Amino acid sequence: MKACNDAQGIIHSFQSLGTVDGPGVRYVVFMQGCNLRCSCCHNPDTWELKASKTYTAEQVFKNASKYVEYFGKDGGITVSGGEPLMQAQFVKNLFILCKENGINTCLDTSGSILNDNVLSLLDYTDRVLLDVKYTNNDDYVKHVGCTLDTVLKFLQILDQKHIKTTIRQVIIPTVNDDKNNILKLKDIVSKFSCVDKIELLPFKKICQTKYDELGISFPFGTLPTPQAELMQELNLLLK
Ligand code: SF4
Fold first, then answer.
1. 41: Cβ below 6 Å to ligand 1?
2. Distance, CA 101 to ligand 1 centroid (Å)?
3. 8 torsion bin: left (phi>0), alpha (psi -120 to 50), beta (else)
């Protein structure tokens, strides 16, 4: 793995006016590098912490600031990936600049890395979008590459720090698209008062071309996209 200078962030791409990665309109930073290999991953091109462009926190902040008038009262900046926690010191530097300037900060993460840098970053994080990808450990180990416990420990820290949290789960036909899974997710999450929202996202395959270009197989490439009616039914279980 390429060693990274904490002052520089290795970044895959930016989205100026995102509306699906946290509340309101947001400037989204997609970090390069991921410690996991999810079978449903939409962004395999972010996995390797290789020679993508590097930026200082100041440079990213300056770019994001251009859009501040669009953020309104709910919007702000989201750092996603890849896995942003792999570059926690850089993200912390960026979030400190945001907080100094009254910009809301949001972290989109798998919650699979916990160290002093991560703990410190969380002190400047207004909201976390946390993937709870499966509700059982076997699927986590098989289809993600970490344990469910690791993620729940991370969620516990968010709870202790009173950080508003959105839980996200991608619904994948034949893997986790059953009602029992959703009821279990609801039950797991009910123990954490920091969670104010659960989002179920339909599995999509528009990323197939990325896998083809990288010459790697998409483990869930043969699975279908869930029907809208099923998504509706599963969402109703969360009410
Ligand atoms: S954590 Fe996210 S970026 Fe990393 S492999 Fe999983 S889905 Fe892909």
1. yes
2. 30
3. beta
Q: How far is the CA of 43 from the centre of ligand 1 (A)?
A: 7
At 164-188, the pLDDT tens digits run: 999 999 999 999 999 999 999 999 9
Atom of ligand 1 nearest to the CA of 82: 3
| Residue 100 CA to ligand 1 centre (angstroms) | 30
Instruction: Please give the CATH topology (third level) of the domain spanning 8-236.
Output: TIM Barrel (3.20.20)
Alpha-carbon torsion 179, 184, 190, 196, what sign?
negative
CA angle 175, 177, 178 (to 5 degrees): 105
| Span 71-112, pLDDT tens digits | 999 999 999 999 999 999 999 999 999 999 999 999 999 999
Q: Name the residue ranges covered by the structural domains of the chain.
A: 8-236
